[in-house]
Amino acid sequence: MSMRRRTLLGFGAAAATGVGMSLLGSSAAAGALSPRMASPRQAPTAQFAIGVRQFFWSRGNRQLNTKIFYPAAGTAGGNPIPNAPIANGVFPIAEWSHGMGCNSDCYSSQTHDLAAAGFICPAPSFSDNTNIGSVYNGNWSKDVSEVLTRTLALNSTTGDPFAGHMDTRVGVGVSGHSMGGMTTHGLLTAWPDNRIAAAVPVACVDMGNPAGLHANVLFIHGDHDPTCDYNSARAAYAELPSPKAFLTHVGADHGQYLTPDYRYYAQTKNTFLDWFRWSLYGDTAARDRLRSDATSNGTSWQAALT
């Protein structure tokens, strides 16, 4: 993709609108997993309680304060419980990247939904969370790769509560909104991470040419987004091979469809979760639900799943 095709963003005060306070939100990593399509199995159908652990990692001089939300033992519902025992089972990893001016707590609807559905969700707080340049120079994408490496290492750390509870056979999922969505797309293009088996860039712009990763990619975007150009995301979608899909919220702005009180939030939530259930659990029933998940009077759906 030439620089003429890339939509460069100028996030000024007028652009710092969306969900919450503001949701504007490398080379393939060493020791990478070799992702393959998950062996078909049913993803968990019951909701889990949610646990959360906090880690203070770094990459060079960049701080990577990260909360990991995860399925916890106990009764489903309620707020995340710090350091709760992890639920019985082996769970895939599905990461979330926040947008401008935010941190790992800004998108609780997404991170908590992932954990309750049976995913381990690392959510880094980027140290320069208003610096669009750090997205365009790859620092945020490289930060995510480092967070994935640190998270995966816990699976084989003797005595760690996560040891043996991570499904490391199928690769990982990545997702995020706005600057976090651009970060996610960057991990498929300019700074690829070959551990990625599934990605959901939300309200992103085209960050470069596809790197040839074998990943299932779902785009989610509002077609009246004043901040991240919808047509740029459409161009990014067109460049990728299948499996891929595009959920458009018709008439929606930059992020209103990520909030539970939005009329068509169910289409966001169900499509988002079933994409990861299919991609990381190999749940073919989740794949077969995608069209109905996404369909409403306020959305449109395009997919090439084979």
From TrEMBL:
Residues 1-31 form the signal peptide. Gene3D superfamilies: alpha/beta hydrolase. Keywords: Hydrolase, Lipid degradation, Lipid metabolism, Signal. InterPro entries: AB_hydrolase_fold, TAT_signal. The keyword Chaperone does not apply. It comes from the Bacteria. PANTHER family: PLATELET-ACTIVATING FACTOR ACETYLHYDROLASE (PTHR10272:SF0). This is Mucin. It comes from Streptomyces javensis.
